[in-house]
Amino acid sequence: MENVSEARQSFKMLTDAAPPDSVDVWTATIEEAEAARSKSPHSMDVMHSKIKTGQTLKAIRAAITEEDAAAPTFSDDGNSITDWILEGFHIKDEQ
């Protein structure tokens, strides 16, 4: 039940941030899919995310490190910006 509550909260945040006309289109699309799903289960494919997953964290780290090696940029404490970003990734991984 915890996941349902979290999903509803995320949905509310998304719909609150979206333009009202987008929410109307989403609602109509979902209602049409629900109505058609008994005849065509593929109608529910509209629910699949169309967001590309993108690069892996490993690939992002490698690209950042490579870019920094080509043109290092240093912060006030003498560390490179890449070091700062990679430290953030490291902290996130430990959490």
Structure, explained:
- The chain has 95 residues and is an all-alpha fold.
- It has 2 domains: 2-47, no CATH class; 57-94, no CATH class.
- Helix content is 64%, strand content 0%.
- The chain contains 4 helices and no strands.
- Helix 3 (57-70) packs antiparallel against helix 4 (81-94).
- The protein is elongated, with a radius of gyration of 21 Å.
- The model has no long low-confidence stretch (mean pLDDT 81).
Q: Helices and strands in order, then pairings?
A:
Elements: H1 2-17, H2 20-36, H3 57-70, H4 81-94
Helix pairs in contact: 3-4
Structure described in brief:
With 95 residues, this protein is mostly helical. It has helices at 2-17, 20-36, 57-70, 81-94.
- Structural class, please? mainly alpha
Fraction of helical residues: 55-70%
Question: Count the strands?
Answer: 0
**Uncertain segments:** none
Task: Report the order of strands and helices.
Answer: HHHH
| Average pLDDT, all residues | 81
Oligomer: single chain
Number of domains: 2
Taking the sheet with the most strands, its summary is: none
Strand proportion, as a percent range, falls in under 5%
Any idea what the shape is?
Answer: elongated
* Head-to-tail CA distance between termini: 24 Å
Rg over CA atoms, rounded to whole Å, is: 21 Å
Number of helices: 4
Tags for this entry?
95 residues; mainly alpha; 2 domains
